[in-house]
Amino acid sequence: MNNKLFKKINSCRICGNDDLAIVLDLGDQPPANSLRDNIEEELPRIPLQLACCRLCGAAQLSVSVNPEYLFKHYVWVTGTAETTRKYSIEFCSRMLERLPLGRPLKIIEVASNDGTFLKPFKVKGHELLGIDPAENIVKMANEDGINTISEFFSSELAGKIISGFGEADCIFARNVVPHVEDAHDVIEGMGRCLDEKGLGAIEFHYAGTIHNELHYDSIYHEHNLYLSLSCLSKMLEKHGLFCFDISESPISGGSIVAYFSKHRREQSENFKKKILREKNDNLNSVSAWIDFSRRAVKHKDELLNLIKGVPSKMIGYGASARSSTILNFCGIDRRVLSCIADNSPLKQGKYTPGTDIKIFSPDIAFQSKPESVLLLAWNFSDEILRELHDKYEFSGTVVVPFPGNPRIPKS
pTM of the full predicted structure? Predict the structure, then answer.
C-alpha cells in the first residue's frame, strides 16, 4: 500500500484524545469513487475501519486518505437525482425564512459541487459564491451560471474570500464537514466568512440514524467523521459558533441540518430533544458502536442469503460511493451482478472499484431483461422503484439492503 496516499490517525479528530478503539473492520478497500475505464488498472487498497474515541465518543475512520486523490476529479454530481433537486428548493426556503429579507443577500456554499443548492438562491436574486475542489464539476457549475471557484475550503482561503466577495449573510456546507481532513479548520473558516448577524448551516449524515438503521454502507474513505449533534455542537463552540436549531433532511437516508450563529440564541425544542436522546441512547460511546459492528456482520450474512434465494439474472441499481462499501464487504462482484445501472454520465462505461462490475445507463442495463435488482442506491428507493415500474415495466424481484434488515418490498 502507498503510505503517501493515506496516514493512520492516532488522535481523535474532534477532541484530540489519543485513545481510539477500532470497532468495525470492513477490510482493505479501494477508495469508493475510484471508478476506472480499464478493468486491468490496479487500485490501491486502504484499510476501512471505524474507530471510536474513548473520551468524547466520536465515530471516525482510523486512517485519512489524501484529499487530492479523493476529490480533485470527482464523479458524484449533486443534481443527478430528482429527490435532491426538489430538496434544494426546500433547503433554500428553510434558510431564507431564518434570514432578514428585503435586499440581495450574500450566499456562500462550501463544497458546492455542480451548484444545485445555489440555484434556488440565484432565482431569488441573491449573490452567490460556490467553492469546490473538483475541477471537472466546477467547470460544469460555472458553465451553468453558478459563480464557483475550484479550491479546497480552509480558514486561510476564508481570508481571501472576505477580501474579494465580502462576508456572507449565509454560509452553508452540506455533507462536507465529515469529509475533510481537518474539520476544525473548515468550521473556523466558515465562522470567519460569516457576518456578525449571519446564519450558518451544516448538513450531515446523522450518526444516530447511521447507528440505529445500520447504515454501514455510509462508511467509506471520503467520510472521516460520523457526527452526532452533540459532537458537532461542541466543535462549533470551540470556534465561537453556537448551534440553536435543526431540521430533517431526506439526503443519505437520514441527515440533519444544524443551524448556527456567532451569538447564542434560544435553542429550539427539536435541538434540545435530539441532544437528550443522544445522551439517553448512549450514542457517543464505544459500546454503542461495538453493538453497531455486531449487527453489521449479521446484516451481511442476511443480505447474502437473501440474494441467493432470488432469480440469479441480477443487476445492481446505483453506483454510489456507498455501494462500493457494501459490494466489497459482502464480496458481491460481477459473478453476482451482471452490471450496475446509474443515471450519471460520468460513471457510465466505467468499472466499480474492487468488484469490477461495469456501469451502464439504466436504458442499456434493462435491455438485458434482468429478473432481479439489488437496489444499491436505496436512499433514493421511492424515486427508483417508481422508475423501474413506470419506465421499464420491471416486474421482477427487488432486494433493498437498507435501512435496517435487507428485504424484498411487496410489489
Answer: 0.93
